Amino acid sequence: MGPVLSRLLAGALALAPLSPALLASPATSAPLDGEYFIEGREPGGGSKYKGQVLVVKEDAVYSVIWKIQNQVLYGTGILQNKTFAVTYLNYGPASAPGLALYDVADDGTLTGQFTMLGAKHIGVEAWIPSGDQTP
């Protein structure tokens, strides 16, 4: 770590000390690893869509891959208590980084919102574990 980054990190920690709750390991009553059916609505009340998503835990983060019609999106997520945050990218012609934030229910379903860099609206999405039902 360089001297500038070290000073910035030290300053940030001095200004906002981490509470023990933030340092505790994240917990949820349902594991996130697995396949999900998804239903959503594009930002700003746009069109509805259905698809699938795969979530794989890799150490402290999760790899997330969405397949919606002919579109594939790749993301990386973190879990804090019952909140799952994912940054993602669509490698298609209109690629822009995105951010999604989901609430994780005890039954393993996820509901949340998403947006992309530069967007002015929010879309919504729900994930249902694939073992629960078919879309």
Note down, in words, how this protein is organized.
With 135 residues, this protein is mainly beta. The protein contains 2 helices and 8 strands. An 8-stranded antiparallel beta barrel has the order 1-2-3-4-5-6-7-8. The longest helix has 13 residues. It is globular, with a radius of gyration of 17 Å.
Would you spell out the secondary-structure blueprint of this structure?
Elements: H1 3-15, H2 20-23, E1 34-41, E2 48-58, E3 61-68, E4 71-80, E5 83-90, E6 97-104, E7 110-116, E8 123-129
Antiparallel strand pairs: 1-2, 1-8, 2-3, 3-4, 4-5, 5-6, 6-7, 7-8
The neighbouring-strand order within the major sheet is: 1-2-3-4-5-6-7-8
Helix content: 10-25%
Distance between the termini: 48 Å
Please state the average pLDDT score. 80
CATH third-tier fold name: Lipocalin
Structural class: mainly beta
SSE ordering: HHEEEEEEEE
User: Which CATH architecture?
Assistant: Beta Barrel
Compute the CA-based radius of gyration. 17 Å
Strand content bin: over 45%
The gross shape turns out to be: globular
Q: What is the fourth-level CATH superfamily?
A: Quinohemoprotein amine dehydrogenase alpha subunit, domain 2
